[in-house]
Design the sequence.
């Protein structure tokens, strides 16, 4: 991702650091999004099971997961705030001109985030003293607000891909049709794509932790449940994601030809276009890579005679650079490849489950599951590279070039360097905290003694019927 | 309608100053609590008081940002292209602060707790300073309409430094008042006593800074001084009276009364700034009217604000209510 744009002589000097910093901070933040959005849902599934069936182990899982969610939500909240700052600090050309259009979905997002922050706190700190079912429903608000918040952010992002609903005069937005801005052409599918991605990433990542435990021989109900709930969610979302992804690809073919030609690594417009796997684009030519005859045309329009616009159909002045094309293409390949692996894993799970009706414990299956979270993460990141780099050189397609959106003041490199250092500390800190929590939980029963603060330090007094477990 | 949005924006600023301010101030007392053993009671109080509410309190900042860039895009870019240094540092401070706090909460005693605690406490003091400096830069008219003002003098000037110092002391004062009440609710008399002293000291310091500020503004930002001493004067008078009353009542009055008085004191100071700026958004060169986005956008923002009043306000009251009744944790 850091190579997202090799600079050319004509680029303003701030473009590279601004772009790298944005890519880095977005790439960091996007890892946390699935946890705020989808992990909380899995936590509620366990919580529901605990309340309905009196399943103690499910309750322990829900309580522990809420603690993990709290830490990750906090980091996600602050890294999201940094993005808010960066939109202004790095891209004044975007916010100054298109703020009236592009900005208001963020206001809607702010609303949802507010709800999320309030109810996440009530849920996380409410285990001991709130009545069980009202407490559960505060968690439901969290997951719903997460969906609303994601939809709003995607509305802004998809608008940059397929802008609509504005009237520009003398470089100023003079008219706005809010519904067209929010529900722009790319909105619905992009939103569903991201929602499913969040459930897939969080599902595989959490399941991976318990797959590791199962591999180590911890085959108790707690570990089986901890594996089965998130894995099932991810396994259900995975095939749906393929359908959605395929639909989006055809929509991109229709409405974002430049992005599509970069994805397909296609220099010239034509029919009977082969699908190129791997390979790069250099000096206007496709190098290396394996070509499958006619496949790209068939995928785009169901017949080999389907014409696909190549890079030559884009005016030279706004044609993406060779390096951008290569990055988009490779990122797309990585996304499809990793998603296919995850789909196979989901099918494997379905097959094993169908035969034995219990959580599979085959070693190779568990090993694959243990790494599936990281694979899903790579898939998510590469998907974002496709959509973001695929839009270049535009920030808002057809309206605003990235070089005109970028900040021109000061020197951005020191800021970027500081960001790298602080984010590295945060990442190390977060991993350290998660490891500490895991270790504490694996030494069952001792945690109450060593936690200095917080709700679990003292024994439960008048909590819900089965609170006061060891979480 | 444009003015209405400006008012909405300013309500956001006031809410952030109050709620976010109290959180930052808690970090100030955390920083000055003393060594690991001696400072533990204070840090524990800060933890239990702030943990459930800080994320919600922090959201006001996002609200302000979003409102300003949507409703007043030109003013927003003028600010970010001029005040990018303090804004960038504040953003980094927010990261260090939030992560540090969340990590400390989850960690057991030891080095990890210490490191994350230091990150939280230090950035709790630096971040409001930078925000105060940003406010000073805007209020003193150092942000040109077209942006790209001087990168250093726009926030390293007497008014900005005053804004920064005032922000830090006001945060400390607010937090001490809130924490006095929290300690009392936990029937922790020594801690209650300690925070009452702190509130008193911070209140005095904040008052002194404000008094010195009068002279600073007269010399450095004559227009702001003039406005504050005319149209802003009633609000500032209310602020001064409430601040004084809160100090006098600290010993005898119930925490809700003192808290309300302190909150009014802060609200009226910030509102005074808003009134003094009016009808300008930046200095005397960009009016609210000139900077406004097209009407449709403003209507959406008003609708969002309306929904916020319906949805967010009761939720916030629920959160604070549960927190005050110690149902959380």
Sequence:
């Amino acid at each position: 991702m850091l190579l997202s744009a090799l600079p050319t002589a004509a680029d303003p000097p701030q473009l590279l650091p601004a772009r790298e910093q944005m890519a880095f901070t977005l790439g960091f933040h996007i890892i946390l999004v699935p946890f705020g959005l989808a992990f909380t849902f899995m936590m509620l599934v366990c919580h529901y099971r605990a309340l309905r069936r009196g399943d103690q182990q499910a309750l322990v899982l829900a309580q522990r997961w809420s603690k993990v969610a709290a830490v990750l939500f906090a980091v996600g909240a602050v890294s999201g705030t940094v993005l808010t700052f960066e939109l202004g600090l790095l891209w004044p050309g975007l916010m100054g001109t298109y703020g009236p259009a592009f900005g208001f979905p963020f206001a809607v997002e702010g609303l949802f985030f507010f709800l999320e922050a309030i109810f996440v706190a009530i849920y996380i700190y409410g285990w001991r003293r709130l009545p069980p079912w009202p407490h559960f429903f505060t968690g439901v608000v969290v997951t719903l607000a997460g969906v609303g918040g994601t939809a709003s952010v995607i509305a802004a992002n998809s608008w940059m891909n397929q802008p609509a609903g504005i009237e520009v005069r003398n470089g100023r937005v003079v008219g706005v049709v809010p519904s067209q801005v929010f529900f722009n052409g790319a909105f619905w599918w992009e939103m569903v794509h991201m929602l499913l991605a969040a459930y897939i990433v969080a599902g595989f990542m959490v399941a991976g932790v318990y797959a590791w435990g199962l591999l180590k021989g911890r085959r108790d109900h707690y570990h089986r449940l901890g594996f089965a709930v998130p894995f099932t969610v991810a396994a259900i979302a995975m095939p749906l994601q393929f359908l959605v992804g395929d639909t989006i690809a055809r929509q991109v073919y229709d409405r974002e030809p430049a992005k599509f030609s970069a994805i397909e690594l296609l220099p010239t417009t034509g029919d009977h276009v082969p699908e190129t796997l791997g390979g790069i684009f250099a000096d206007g030519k496709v190098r290396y890579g394996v070509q499958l005859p006619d496949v790209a045309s068939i995928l785009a329009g169901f017949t080999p005679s389907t014409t696909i616009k190549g890079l030559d159909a884009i005016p030279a002045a706004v044609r993406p650079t060779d390096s951008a094309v290569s990055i988009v293409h490779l990122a797309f390949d990585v996304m499809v490849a990793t998603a296919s692996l995850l789909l196979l894993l989901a099918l494997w799970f379905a097959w094993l489950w169908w035969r034995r009706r219990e959580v599979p414990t085959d070693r190779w299956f568990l090993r694959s599951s243990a790494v599936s979270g990281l694979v899903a993460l790579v898939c998510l990141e590469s998907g974002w590279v496709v959509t973001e780099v695929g839009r270049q050189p535009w920030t808002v397609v057809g309206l605003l070039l990235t070089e005109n959106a970028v900040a021109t003041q000061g020197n951005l490199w020191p800021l970027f360097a500081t960001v790298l250092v602080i984010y590295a500390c945060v990442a190390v800190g977060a991993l350290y905290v998660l490891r500490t929590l895991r270790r504490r939980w694996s030494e069952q029963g001792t945690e109450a003694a060593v936690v200095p603060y917080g709700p679990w330090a003292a024994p439960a007094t008048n909590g819900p019927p089965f609170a006061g477990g060891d979480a | 309608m444009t003015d209405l949005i400006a008012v909405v924006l300013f309500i956001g600023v006031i809410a952030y100053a109050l709620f976010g301010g109290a959180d930052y101030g808690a970090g100030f007392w955390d920083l000055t609590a003393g060594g690991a053993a001696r400072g533990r009671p204070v840090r524990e109080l800060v933890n239990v008081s702030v943990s459930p509410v800080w994320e919600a309190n922090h959201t006001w900042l996002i609200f302000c940002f979003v409102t300003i860039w949507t409703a007043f895009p030109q003013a927003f870019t003028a600010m970010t292209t001029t005040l990018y240094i303090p804004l960038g540092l504040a953003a980094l401070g927010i990261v260090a602060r939030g992560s540090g706090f969340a990590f400390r909460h989850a960690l057991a005693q030891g080095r990890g707790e210490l490191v994350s605690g230091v990150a939280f406490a230090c950035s709790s003091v630096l971040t409001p300073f930078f925000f105060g400096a940003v406010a000073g830069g805007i209020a003193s008219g150092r942000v040109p309409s077209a942006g790209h003002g001087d990168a250093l003098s726009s926030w390293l000037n007497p008014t900005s430094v005053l804004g920064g110092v005032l922000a830090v002391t006001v945060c400390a004062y607010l937090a001490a008042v809130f924490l006095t009440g929290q300690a009392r609710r936990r029937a922790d008399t020594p801690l209650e006593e300690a925070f009452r002293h702190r509130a008193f000291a911070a209140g005095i310091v904040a008052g002194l800074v404000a008094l010195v500020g009068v002279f600073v503004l007269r010399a450095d930002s004559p227009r702001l001084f003039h406005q504050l001493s005319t149209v802003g004067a009633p609000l500032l008078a209310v602020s001064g009276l409430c601040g004084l009353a809160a100090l006098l009542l600290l010993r005898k009055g119930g925490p809700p009364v003192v808290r309300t008085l302190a909150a009014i004191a802060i609200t009226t100071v910030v509102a005074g700034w808003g009134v003094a700026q009016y009808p300008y958004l930046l200095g005397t060169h960009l009016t609210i009217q000139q900077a406004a986005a097209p009407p449709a956008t403003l209507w959406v923002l008003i609708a969002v604000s309306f929904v916020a009043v319906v949805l967010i306000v009761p939720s916030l009251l629920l959160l604070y209510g549960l927190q005050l009744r110690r149902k959380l944790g």
In short: The beta strands of chain A are 166-169, 172-176, 275-277, 280-282, 285-287, 290-292, 394-396, 400-401. Residues 273 and 304 of chain A are 7 Å apart (CA to CA). Chain A touches chain B through 80 residues (CB under 8 Å).
